[in-house]
# Entry
Amino acid sequence: MKELTTKEIDDVMKQSQEAFLLYRQVQGTAKALFLNSIAEEIESLGSDLIHQAMEETNLPEARLAGERGRTCNQLRQFAALVKDGSWVEARIDTAIPDRAPLPKPDLRKMMVPLGPVVVFGASNFPFAYSTAGVDTASALAAGCPVVLKAHPAHPKTSELVASAIEKATTKTGMPKNVFQHVHTPSFEGGKALVQSSFTKAVGFTGSFSGGKALYDYATQRPDPIPVFAEMGSINPVFILPGALKVRGEKVADMYAASITQSVGQFCTNPGLMLGLKSPELSQFTMQLSQKMEKIAPGTMLHPGIAANYKKNREKALAQKGVSLSAQSTDAAKENQAITTLTTVDASDFLVNPTLVEEVFGPYSLLVRAGNIDELKASLDKIPGQLTATIIGEEEDLIEYADFIRLVMQKVGRVIINGVPTGVEVCPSMHHGGPFPATTDSRFTSVGTDAIKRFVRPLSFQNFPDTLLPAELQQSNPLGIWRLFNNELGKK
Amino acid sequence: MKELTTKEIDDVMKQSQEAFLLYRQVQGTAKALFLNSIAEEIESLGSDLIHQAMEETNLPEARLAGERGRTCNQLRQFAALVKDGSWVEARIDTAIPDRAPLPKPDLRKMMVPLGPVVVFGASNFPFAYSTAGVDTASALAAGCPVVLKAHPAHPKTSELVASAIEKATTKTGMPKNVFQHVHTPSFEGGKALVQSSFTKAVGFTGSFSGGKALYDYATQRPDPIPVFAEMGSINPVFILPGALKVRGEKVADMYAASITQSVGQFCTNPGLMLGLKSPELSQFTMQLSQKMEKIAPGTMLHPGIAANYKKNREKALAQKGVSLSAQSTDAAKENQAITTLTTVDASDFLVNPTLVEEVFGPYSLLVRAGNIDELKASLDKIPGQLTATIIGEEEDLIEYADFIRLVMQKVGRVIINGVPTGVEVCPSMHHGGPFPATTDSRFTSVGTDAIKRFVRPLSFQNFPDTLLPAELQQSNPLGIWRLFNNELGKK
# Structure
């Protein structure tokens, strides 16, 4: 693909700003038609899209079909959200002209879009976190035009999805350039997109080094802008003693599957497990090892990811005290990843920061703590995460309640007796954790609240009713939920 | 005051983290008692507090009494908010165990506190934006302990207010060190507070250079944290032709008062006015000048601010094309500020970035635009602002509707036919504008939504009901508003 010059990138962003002046005036019902139309056009691409993605990502057909479904579902959830309209957090405080000592003005507030948003597609989700993924869907729902930087690992898939968005743009009469698709595979191209004065926010899913670089560019601009970068996670799983006693084998089954799902290429992959030393933990390690050995190596998304897996796995295995507990019995072919389980004692884990680095792929490290103090100390060494999981019987959960509260400080989602993989798309999902899991733990990149990343509040003081946006007009013509003189209702 | 060492500062922050582990468990009703008790204890200080503040700030008694009232009102508004409890944005999606192809888990989400917050007191509001001001009140309401850096311009006033908070802490049984008061007048002290690994967010009101420095320290930490810095604003006022024709003199009255209120020491002071060249604009300038000349110089908050005003005013007057249109007839005594109105043609304004710099004090610059294009070009030169004001008759507002929409992109609040000074404390107030007015336009530092600065969402997946916070338990024991399976209600 031809690399764009910095001048061309700034022109693209300028066109995005011009589109913004029109698009921010578009009503919620019209934005809903647009988002639904994108979903329909993606579905209309049929098997061509799936086959193109299979060719570029090595992901199997069923997984890609499922991901396409999720992507269209997301678009439709945002369509429903903006059609309903209540998401703007309208607040109204009416005037009290005769208040002493000073009259109270009429004040009304709602969320308005930030402006042009740059989205970097992710390699591991060619649909759900890429071209028409949640970043694009939520930015368009918010009223922000999108400039999408295609992921160089699946440029043709990205082109196909972009063509669907362009069709929907025309069909529903949206402003020209409300969505633009660019190929700038180089690092410099991404930098220029973030540094353009027209860019008002950035969405990214990928590596720590990539996300942190974009964050630094954005915060060091003359006018800093927000970057929502999801940068990976090792998603610690704490396996408590009671559970190991009664259902160790079941837990091993569940985790052999979770660690290796999609060749371990999920940001919520459980890359770290921790338990208290006991005969039951030894037995669990053996059971999990036996199950993981049977899981054949899988082909990774692209050669770069496969090479990184190989390198990071070898680095982890070379650390002091780390033992290989299990690996796929079958040999790995080119670009395939060997399913791997390693173990280490907490005493070694505590002094080696390398062991909390992500090994992106079908890999997990099991830490054996000598006692609860070592378990707590191990938790202290784990940086911010997307998720943490607690496996425990009812009495475990009571006994370790204080510990679970400490875990909550580190993460964006806590799962009890489940697996972290499988991120449900719904309003109560929070997909975002303390740094370095993401650059901003206060915002989610999954679920309808993702729209909040691309808006800011604007207050309207003493406006004539006719000049107010419909959301704030006295008669509530859209029938949305509003906080009206401090009472929530549809008044 | 004795300067703290970096080690002592880190100890203070460590104590704050220890307090956090207890304080984050405190229920909303108990936090409400605490906040109400702080208000009561401040009121109990009576005239001692007012007299101490008068001595340290040169502000008059009535203004300080009013500001104390506002401060206690703010504390009580946050108390009511956390007592009600609905602010946590609870979302609940119940499980669908038999969903195909995969079961849906039970997911629940609410806002939780970030952790220890560092607050820098402001010089221009010794109560409302200082020791027990909105930053402290909203952080404590959120469940975050506060470390307050006393403003060196009013350390004794700050000590008195801190003693009230400490009394309230004891009386209501809050954790030790939930509030700590430190004097670290040096730049290095502030830096160490922001850089401590225990600090999770920062609130600041003051100069651009101060706020931007804190922002840079925070974003360049190994784990970046949010900084909410309000850094000043020139709050442009656009005076449209129709209004000048029918009520120029009334507008001049209103603005002579607004520009000079509290010796111009408000962050919403109207430091810039813009209009279209016409006989009416000339007459308005003359009328405003006559009124401003009569306003005697006032004593500023402290000698540093008075010296800065003198320097910045002289710098502005030395710029090409800038004329002195009015200044106080009375001479200025030591530390007093001369009321000043300057004028400039848009052609000079457009090419001189110095003219959008804030002159903090009783000063305003009036820009004469030759036509609407010059007015639009002038708007383009104005960076992000807290507020903008439009003075216009109904036909002005219709004729300039597109222009008003452009104005909205630049600011956090738009006022029609009023003045920007006088920031109402209510849910629909947004006090925060695009950079450089604040470091984060997405959050307010006035009104109950200020609590959102110090929280993040946390998802609970498949939790037993008894382990959930009360806000998310199935029976809704607190009776709060929740989004339950996508329906807002008190279910």
Q: What stands out?
A: Chain A has a mean pLDDT of 96. Chain A has two domains: 6-231+441-489, 237-416. Chain A has 15 helices and 19 strands. Residues 237-416 of chain A form a domain with the Aldehyde Dehydrogenase; Chain A, domain 2 fold (CATH 3.40.309.10).
